[in-house]
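Good morning,

Attaching, inline, the C-alpha cells for the sequence recovery test we're adding to the shared suite. The designed sequence is right after.
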C-alpha cells in the first residue's frame, strides 16, 4: 500500500521507502497539521540533498541542524526543539539498531514487545507508540501476534482515529472529523 500521509507525492514516496522518514514524521506530528509533520522528513532530505540516514542526523552539528529545520518554510513550528528531538531519535537508532530504523520492528513476533520498543524511542510516549504500531500493522503489513491489542483503540479495524487510518484525502477528512468530535466531547464534560 502506498503511504499518503503528507498528501504530497514526493514526500509520501520518501515515507514509503524510508523507515527513518516515517519515524521522524511521526515524531514531528504534534501541534502542527499532520501533512506538515509528515512532509517534514522530505523537506529535511531536500535540504541535505539526499535521503536521510540516522548516522548523519545524529552526527550533525546541533546548531546547524536546528538552523536547517528553521529555514523558511520551517519544518515545524518549534524547529529548535524538534531538531533536538530528531537528533536524539537518530542517535538512539544508531546506538540500539545500528542506524537501521526498520530493525525496531523487524522480526518482532509479539505486539507488546513492538509497542515497548516503539515507546523506548526518544520522543515516543505510549500514545505515539500505539499510533505508529497501528500504522505499521494497517499500512505496512507489520502484524506480530497481538498487534491490534497493543495498538489500543488505534488498532481497531475500520476506525478513523489517527494517521494509521489515513490512506487518501477522504480518510484524512474522516480522521479530522473524528478528532473534532472527540474534542467536542471532551469539552462537554
Amino acid at each position: 500500500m502506498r503511504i499518503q500521509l503528507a498528501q504530497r507525492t514526493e514526500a509520501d514516496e520518501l515515507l514509503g521507502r524510508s523507515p527513518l522518514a516515517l519515524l521522524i514524521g511521526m515524531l514531528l506530528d504534534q501541534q502542527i497539521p499532520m501533512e506538515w509533520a509528515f512532509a517534514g522528513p522530505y523537506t529535511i532530505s531536500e535540504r541535505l540533498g539526499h535521503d536521510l540516514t540516522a548516522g548523519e542526523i545524529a552526527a550533525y552539528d546541533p546548531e546547524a541542524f536546528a538552523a536547517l529545520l528553521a529555514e523558511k518554510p520551517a519544518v515545524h513550528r518549534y524547529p529548535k526543539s524538534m531538531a533536538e528531538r530528531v537528533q536524539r531519535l537518530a542517535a538512539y537508532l544508531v546506538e540500539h539498531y545500528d542506524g537501521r530504523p526498520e530493525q525496531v520492528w523487524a522480526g518482532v513476533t509479539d505486539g507488546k514487545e513492538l509497542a515497548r520498543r516503539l515507546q523506548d524511542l526518544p520522543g515516543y510516549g505510549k500514545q505515539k507508540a500505539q499510533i505508529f504500531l497501528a500504522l505499521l500493522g494497517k499500512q505496512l503489513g507489520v502484524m506480530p501476534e497481538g498487534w491490534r491489542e497493543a495498538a489500543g483503540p488505534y488498532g481497531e479495524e475500520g476506525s478513523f482515529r489517527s494517521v494509521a487510518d489515513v490512506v487518501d484525502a477522504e480518510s484524512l477528512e474522516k480522521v479530522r472529523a473524528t478528532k473534532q468530535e472527540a474534542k467536542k466531547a471532551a469539552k462537554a464534560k
